[in-house]
Amino acid sequence: MDAAFTEEQDEIRRTLRTLLRERCGPDEIKAAVQTAPGYDEALWRRLARTLGLPGLALSAAYGGVGCGVTELALACEETGRVLLPSPLLATAVFAAPLVAALGTEAQRAELLPRIAEGALTAALAVPGRALPEALGLVGARDGAWAGGGRAGGVQARPDRDGGAGWRLYGQVEQVPGGHSAELLLVAARAGGYTRGRTLLFLVRAGVDGVRAGADGLVRTRLTALDATRPQARIELRNVPAELLGVDDGGSGSGEAVAEALAAVGTAAATVLAAEAVGAADAALTRTVEYVRAREQFGRPIGSFQAVKHRLADVYVAVQAARSAAYYAAWAAAEGGAGGTEAAVAGGLALAQALEAQRTAAAEAVQLHGGIGFTWEHDAHLYFKRAASDELLFGPVHRLRARAAEREGLFGVADRAPYGGHEGRGGGHEGRGGSGGRNGDGAHGGPDGRGGPDGRDGPDGRDGPDGRDGRDGPDGPDGRDGLRKAVTA
Q1: Which end of the chain, C or N, has fewer beta carbons within 10 A?
Q2: Domains identified in the chain, total number
Q3: Which residues, at least 6 apart from 389, have a Cβ–Cβ distance to it below 8 Å?
Q4: Nearest to 111 by CA among 245, 274, 279, 269
Q5: Residues 225-257: tens digit of each pLDDT
Q6: What is the distance between the alpha carbons of residues 107 and 202, in angstroms, rounded to a whole number?
Q7: pTM score, whole prediction
Q8: Residue 478 lies in a domain
């Protein structure tokens, strides 16, 4: 692994940092989030024109810069440093790669050049609050997040006139950047219950979702915890839509969509980790500057050992998270976003970065004293970003659990830390415990051990231990032996 950045990568970071330092002070940020789109449109156009930021990771064949995940992660580290409100995450990280991966040639030729030049913003709409599940960051990749064919989620059906169009009906609760995006990528279930599959659809939302766009589309901007990361509720009432790519008719059960979403999730984890590192580093820098200037008892408060220790812990956490994010970017660039190593590295980097961001933001509020709790100070902006990111893309322990499963650290019986899995034990040290279950799903005894012959007692509970104090042989279904378990 070559940990050194290229001259081009350093120039991207340096140029973007200089521009954002000039245009993105705390007052400018607070003013931008109060506008209708939730960001500074003039600054967005300048970022697109000067750096090609929306198309940084898009192919040059479609008007992009032709860089990769590493460059996008470095750019987002700088945008995270100033908490830049922009459609960069929703458009360049979530939506554009899906269009590039799944879209037909006509769709790519129409949409990607406009995205690259900053003329078109887009957002990914996933039913419920299941964005991390859909991107494969947490949970199993079983498609359950999309809703069933009978109820829940967003439903898709072909147009009754027999054309190539589709109609969508349903609601999506949380769509980052969805209130102002001109193009929505909506994940919906098609094929009913028997041939159900998850597909992605293009909805031309128009400007503000009111003056132009699809009939039956209602978008409501939500009051989000983090105002710099605006969200919207999307209501689809028989909305006309266009299928992204082609439909396999149910033969592949939407497997191509799941694979594309997982690849986007790997890259997104890396980018989000870098963004969180930038925010954490900025919070730490501001706190260090404050404790150097603030005096108490005739000396700077930063000279007190207790303050030094707390800031030293934050520094270590931020540097460790930065190293993890850079490694994840390298793994994604070298092995591709679809590789296992990149997926594991991205998930772990995101978990570590979210923890570092939360720690840095909390210490910033505490060490700023009374002023750190005020609305006028910007410490609360970093705290809200940290809390919001973990709610949107975490939680941390599930990110780590998913990475462990991908790496194969746990067997099948180890994947359910709460209450067992498919009838397997979930008690302490794998012996079932008073709340665990044995292999056939019945409750174990107080000590979790089976009866003399490994079978349950007459009341459905395990009988006493065998003569040697151990479980008897396996029951008829072969599932009553000792099993390991994960202690939550």
Answers
A1: N
A2: 3
A3: 226, 229, 272, 276, 354, 357
A4: 245
A5: 999 999 999 999 999 999 999 876 654 457 889
A6: 10
A7: 0.82
A8: no
